[in-house]
Amino acid sequence: MFNWVRPELLDWLILLVVGIATTIAQIYMTKAYQLERASNVSNFNYLGSVYALLVGYFLFGESIGILGLSGMAVIFIGVLLSARFKTKTI
């Protein structure tokens, strides 16, 4: 906050693309919740942190530490297990 750097043109373009992509993702996620059971859709919300780490690594050159990799693995395994062994209710 005390070392504010004004965004340049490329920064504004990146922010615009991120905002558009986020809006589109939110629209499709809302549509998914309308069309499918919430328990089926909610598992994929947990993958958002995995996507964020991967985008940060590949697009912005951020490093991913062992805790980040461990967290991604736990989340991914949890989503897979939840999708595989979910209880079926009528």
Helix/strand order, N-terminal first: HHHH
The residue-averaged pLDDT reads: 84
The structural class is mainly alpha
Describe the main β-sheet briefly.
none
Name the overall outline. Answer: flat
Domain count: 2
Tally the helices: 4
Straight-line N-to-C gap = 53 Å
Radius of gyration: 17 Å
Structure description:
- The chain has 90 residues and is mostly helical.
- The protein has two domains: 8-37; 46-90, no CATH class.
- 76% of the residues lie in helices and 0% in strands.
- The chain is built from four helices and no strands.
- It has helices at 9-35, 38-45, 48-60, 66-85.
Outline of this structure?
The chain is mainly alpha-helical.
Descriptors:
90 residues; mainly alpha; 2 domains
Sequence-ordered SSE layout with sheet pairings:
Layout: H1 9-35, H2 38-45, H3 48-60, H4 66-85
